[in-house]
Amino acid sequence: MSEHIVSKKVYFVIFGALIAGTLLTYVAALQDLDFIFHGANTVVALTIAVTKATLVVLYFMHVRYSTRLTWVIVAAGLFWLMIMFALTFSDYFSRGWLSYPR
Amino acid sequence: MAEGHAITHEGAGAQREHHAHAALAHHFDNLEQQREAGTIGMWVFLVQEIMFFGGLFLAYTVYRWQFPAAFVAASNHLNVRLGATNTIVLIVSSLTMALAVYYAQTGSRRNQLIFLLVTMALGTTFLVIKGIEYYDKYRDHLIPGSLIPGRPFHWDTVQHPLPIGVSEHNLEMFFWIYFAMTGLHALHMIIGLGILAYLVYYAYKGRFTPEYHAPVEISGLYWHFVDIVWIFLFPLLYLLGRHLEH
User: Fold this and answer.
1) Which residues of B4-27 are buried (b: 16+ CB within 10 A; e: fewer)?
2) Do B231 and A2 touch (CB under 8 A)?
3) Residues A87, A49: one domain?
4) How does pLDDT run across B134-170, given as a tens digit for each residue?
5) Do residue A7 and residue A32 come from a single domain?
6) For residue A74, is it within any domain?
7) Candidates A29, A41, A73; nearest CB to B44
8) Could you report the predicted ipTM of this complex, rounded to two decimals?
9) Does residue A102 lie in a domain region?
10) In this structure, are A18 and A7 located in the same domain?
11) The CATH number of domain B31-245 is 1.20.120.80
12) CB atoms within 10 A of CB A27
């Protein structure tokens, strides 16, 4: 069997990081970070969420130890998600840029 | 892969020379190939799920961008303690699911059953807490539209005055998105519980061994994916305006 068995210790370390991330998200959300730049709270919250999701994908879902084909499929999913967001927002953000008679 | 496999064709069926595992489907060379195909199949499904939930996250982003003040006011109406508790519950359930997979891989039927059942208990806890939250929204007339006949959406402007430039419909939009996203997530949890029940039954029968445990492994992928969705839902729905609360 070429299957990689992730040790219990790794699972517990990742679990600890996920719990710490959750507490950090909560504490950070109560602070007004708008003095850094407008919307900094959202950026911090999403950064922690992406980090947590990455840990789950790599270790709980074993992608770190999976074949390259699995990597390609995961990356393709994220890539297409980015296309959906980028193209949609290129529309929404630019709607007010041109003024034209109604 | 064909070399080394002496395949003899006899009548309608081809028989493999090697003594095949009972769980090995006829169209795979060996269990390793079968397991790999299953993992990739589940990942392709999960990529579809990313796009499925992605559409809702996109709708959330568009409307939050259009009605920022309404989203803050409506979000601060959610019960952040219950939301945070559920986040912890789901993360613990992901750990227990990972351990169930571990004990399937290492061949401990007893521990595998224990952790599958603990995962089911945690999943049920999540749904009960979600149900309490939904009931609170029902009580406060915050179920959007006319989903509940005779109980339309109504924002209590006496207790919670509308922020400047915010209409009741803007607040209602937040709750449409809240119920669509958490509802779809809860549906995934219910389906996950069904899958876990199936695993418990076959684990009890001793079907999963260190050689064959692909169903436990790929069900784990599904369970962790549902956890990831919540990892994003919790800050985006419950925490987005907490820093502006006084």
Assistant:
1) eeeeeeeeeeeeeeeeeeeebeee
2) no
3) no
4) 999 999 999 998 888 888 999 988 888 888 889 999 9
5) yes
6) yes
7) A73
8) 0.92
9) no
10) yes
11) yes
12) 9
